Amino acid sequence: TQLLEQSPQFLSIQEGENLTVYCNSSSVFSSLQWYRQEPGEGPVLLVTVVTGGEVKKLKRLTFQFGDARKDSSLHITAAQPGDTGLYLCAGFNGGYNKLIFGAGTRLAVHP
Amino acid sequence: DTGVSQDPRHKITKRGQNVTFRCDPISEHNRLYWYRQTLGQGPEFLTYFQNEAQLEKSRLLSDRFSAERPKGSFSTLEIQRTEQGDSAMYLCASSHGQGGGNTIYFGEGSWLTVV
């Protein structure tokens, strides 16, 4: 069974701080996706990482895929209150039929 | 708006009643997925359709749950004899083709509260 574990579960920081959240698995994934979800809304795709060691940047967000394609990290520089939300990592099962999600990291950025 | 549309957005029902949720996927997306999300958890896969064919169902989808996609366009998810444990957000998603390189787009979800 492919499982994705995210840490930390909760993160509460002040505006301007940097943070990193992690997504780990004992299984190899062909790709991992990061979503952001706001309360009462569906998840919105931020990025897909495909190649082991790949680094992708989206403004102040930096995503990295582990060399062995079993883990990924999301680093936010100078966090802003607008970054508040639930950050989910997800990967496709072997048959590419469904996304498997981690439990998410709930981030709160205070002004 | 041409995204994935779900209706109703919120539903409060009494235990034992039946409820039905509707999902309209992005036009021409042949894959449609249903997920369930409870507080503090990530979405859990329930089932998916390739056009009108339901190709996989999770063990989470008990006999009280049924999903259909009769014409390969919109889909419905019905829950019969609701229980308090069914309280969750039900998410619909769609994609063009198989996963992997094809992005899955999620709707805004349908919140179910069983009292």
How does this model look, in words?
The complex is a heterodimer of chains A (111) and B (115). The mean pLDDT of chain A is 93. In chain A, β4 and β5 form a beta hairpin. Chain A has 111 residues and is mostly beta strands. Chain A starts with a strand and ends with a strand. Helix content of chain A is 0%, strand content 52%. In chain A, strands 2, 4, 5, 9, 10 and 11 form a 6-stranded mixed beta sheet that branches. A 5-stranded antiparallel beta sheet of chain A has the order 1-3-8-7-6, with no helix packed on it. Chain B is an all-beta fold. In chain B, strands 2, 4, 5, 6, 9, 10 and 11 form a 7-stranded mixed beta sheet that branches. The mean pLDDT of chain B is 92. At the A-B interface, β5, β9 and β10 of A face β5 and β10 of B.
List the helices and strands and how they pair.
The complex is a heterodimer of chains A (111) and B (115).
Chain A: E1 5-7, E2 10-14, E3 19-24, E4 32-37, E5 44-49, E6 55-58, E7 61-65, E8 71-76, E9 85-92, E10 99-101, E11 105-110
Parallel strand pairs in A: 2-11
Antiparallel strand pairs in A: 1-3, 3-8, 4-5, 4-9, 6-7, 7-8, 9-10, 9-11
Chain B: E1 5-7, E2 10-13, E3 19-24, E4 31-37, E5 44-50, E6 53-57, E7 65-68, E8 75-79, E9 88-95, E10 105-106, E11 110-114
Parallel strand pairs in B: 2-11
Antiparallel strand pairs in B: 1-3, 3-8, 4-5, 4-9, 5-6, 7-8, 9-10, 9-11
Output the helix-strand order of chain A: EEEEEEEEEEE
Overall structural class of chain A, as computed from helix and strand content, comes to mainly beta
Kindly estimate the percentage of residues of chain A that lie in beta strands according to DSSP. Answer: over 45%
Task: State the separation between the terminal residues of chain A, measured CA to CA.
Answer: 41 Å
Report how far the terminal alpha carbons of chain B are from each other: 33 Å
Name the beta content range of chain B.
Answer: over 45%
Gyration radius of chain A, to the nearest Å?
Answer: 13 Å
How would you describe the shape of chain A?
globular
Greatest contact pair? A-B, 24 and 24 residues
